[in-house]
Amino acid sequence: MYGKRFEKETFKTAVKDNVKTLYRKTIDEATPQQIFQAVSYAVKEVIIDDWLATQKAYDEADAKTVYYMSMEFLMGRALGNNLINMTAYGEVKEALAEMNIDLNVIEDEEPDPALGNGGLGRLAACFLDSLSTLNYPAYGCGIRYRYGMFKQKIENGYQVEEPDNWLKEGNPFELRREEYAKEVRFGGNIRFEKDPETGKDIFIQENYESVLAIPYDMPIVGYGNHVVNTLRVWDAKAITDFQLDEFDRGNYHKAVEQENLAKLIVDVLYPNDNHYSGKELRLKQQYFFISASLQAMIAKYKKRHSDIRKLYEKVVIQMNDTHPTVAVPELMRLLIDEEGLNWEEAWEVTSKTCAYTNHTIMAEALEKWPIDLFSRLLPRIYQIVQEIDRRFLIQVRAKYPGNEEKVKKMAILMDGQVRMANMAIISGFSVNGVAKLHTEILKHQELKDFYEMFPEKFNNKTNGITQRRFLAHGNPLLAGWITDRIGDGWITDLSKIANLKPLVNDEQARREFMQIKYKNKVRLAEYIKKHNGIEVDPRSIFDVQVKRLHEYKRQFLNILHIMYLYNQIKEHPEMSFYPRTFIFGAKAAAGYQRAKETIKLINSVADVVNNDRSINGKLKIVFIEDYRVSNAELLFAAADVSEQISTASKEASGTGNMKFMLNGAPTLGTMDGANVEIVQEVGEDNAFIFGLSSQEVIDYENHGGYNPLDIYFNDWELKRVIDQLMDGTYANGDHDMYKNLYNSLLNTQCTARPDVYFILKDFRSYAEAQKKVEQAYRDEQRWSKMALLNTACSGKFSSDRTIEEYVEDIWKLEKIQVPSGQFF
Ligand code: H53
């Protein structure tokens, strides 16, 4: 498929040569990091040919392209994934083995490119993988943060953040493309003139600061099809000519400022997931990469096309959440100020080009920029937003005469703020949610007014994940077994995994399936031993909750339940109890106090429980440090139980839930996000569902009627657990350590509403569901059927399916065939 280039001898020679040219060393002298680099360059060389071939094929076909705009791309490591997608993993592993090099060890040398926080960023990465695999022309556009998601250390039970200097050793897969640099301007003022010749209005930005955006391209390799799309991430640098110029004129200060701006702008990813920080620098980041990406997009379009009014025939922009929605006014600006279109023409192009994905209903995640900040930083953009708003409100008032409530709710500019979601909905041609339930909540609650006005814009695109990374790469034993049983068609068509269904009644098959799970548990147990120094028993139930730490995700509920189990075991040592290993992995945003206290609580409970010999190892608690894509792959493969326990209505979709399912772990969860669809696919009997429904949660939120104290005083076992937060049991006698967490549940003084996330309300039903998990697990036959069925029913949750839906309903792309690039 790739000619001779992955043949063992050729590849070995390439690696040896690279070690020589890069480091003046022989292979025996090279460090693992140097070998990683040498191997990566050898792989990149093959990729480059296909990359050229792909771009040529796209040009020839004059193909429509999607630009996926995202502040986050949580890619994870590239080497292993690229090899899997080039169907060369096995060959390369063997070739390296012949040189006494273990590919897995080399893979571990690669830092995880962590240019994202959590679900939203990882979704973007899965989408790119699917786009390439499905032969669709696509660009991912984002920021090349010098520091990605922080590295998490646990010290004395507390999270400590360390900078993620992921570029320290250089990134072998990227290409710097200085020749495509673009200038981006901030601040200053706008001077307005009439063009003496045409009579058109001209807007001139003066006294601005500017930076140069430099693109770095990373290859996105499709599976076995020679397609290589591009993830283009922008770096910033000061405009040196200008700087000298200013220097000459004595404006040293300004030159230094521009230098600093350039350094700062791409310095670090904001570590908030599902939470808007309101920082000026964040808005700068947004405008920076959007302006640069759109300029590049238009330049590329103009190479082959003369009529900019037809732009939407060749490109579509997908805005990943509100973060990139400044794309709307920026595209308007480029079309009007640079391309000379009038407002109506520019609006037609923009509103046919831009589409918006909403990923959350959490109010604190919706971006609302203060007008004074926004207009100061982006004066011309602000003018355009004002005009979009003005024209829109005329429409609203025409449709709802006299209804100023509507105006208040739907305006872009209101109460001194620029409401980015409103702008995206008004300006784009498509608004989608990320799971059925989420989209329904958007249509009928959160965005009800917009849905009423533009019903045709709204659609659902249930999220998905790539089986290439989360099964083919992350769980090679299971991947191999599935291929032996049903062929390898599942790799590019996950609906085929349903062919495993008949095996549910085949005892031998089930036994093999569970043996693989066991081996993966042993692999994880070794990781835990190495990283945490804790022995865990791979025969115990591996109950896993890994995701960002957020109150609505309710890690707190999980740990309170563990405290409750521990009390029970202590009190009734004779009680039958199936050994459990509770595994957590989660990063808390650096400034999110309650989330950090939850991490400390988990670790403190772990300390007490893991060191209590009297319970005979029945309970173990492990907190995986620095949860990230690479160790996630190990965790999904080894999990027995998938904890998806968010307060119903709060988790827009979730995607971890799908990764567990694919790897044969039944869901223990609420009817939230995509859990609803998971249960639909696998059947209620093969999941453990508990808790309030989303409607019940919403009703309580709207009408009140829930008082956690009623539960606290009527459930003494739960009361005891909650009191243990205050009696020093898990705090070496310190009574204050968990006071905030305690208050978040009960104290009406501290929060607007105590127990905002209905932890006490759902506690008993969660505990019941957990009991059922234990019963089911004890019945080996039943459990193995359930586990296998989860894998067999996961077909819907491939991001390939999601992407086909985006293409069909929103993007309207064509598949482009790419010949092998080996002849370049
Ligand atoms: O996006 C995921 C969803 C998940 C949702 C998450 C998300 C972020 O990670 C960050 C911001 C935001 O608005 C939403 O919480 O439920 O699965 C991908 O859609």
UniProtKB/TrEMBL annotation:
Tagged with keyword Transferase: yes
Catalytic activity line of the entry: [(1->4)-alpha-D-glucosyl](n) + phosphate = [(1->4)-alpha-D-glucosyl](n-1) + alpha-D-glucose 1-phosphate
PROSITE patterns the UniProt entry points to: PHOSPHORYLASE
Cofactor requirement: pyridoxal 5'-phosphate
Residue intervals passing through the bilayer: none
Enzyme class: transferase
Key words of the record: Carbohydrate metabolism, Glycosyltransferase, Pyridoxal phosphate, Transferase
SUPFAM superfamilies: UDP-Glycosyltransferase/glycogen phosphorylase
Source organism, top-level taxon: Bacteria
Enzyme Commission (EC) number: 2.4.1.1
Pfam families for this protein: Phosphorylase
Gene3D superfamilies (UniProt xref): Glycogen Phosphorylase B
Record-linked CDD domains: GT35_Glycogen_Phosphorylase
Function text: Allosteric enzyme that catalyzes the rate-limiting step in glycogen catabolism, the phosphorolytic cleavage of glycogen to produce glucose-1-phosphate, and plays a central role in maintaining cellular and organismal glucose homeostasis.
Family: Belongs to the glycogen phosphorylase family.
Protein name as annotated: Alpha-1,4 glucan phosphorylase
Source species: Faecalicatena acetigenes
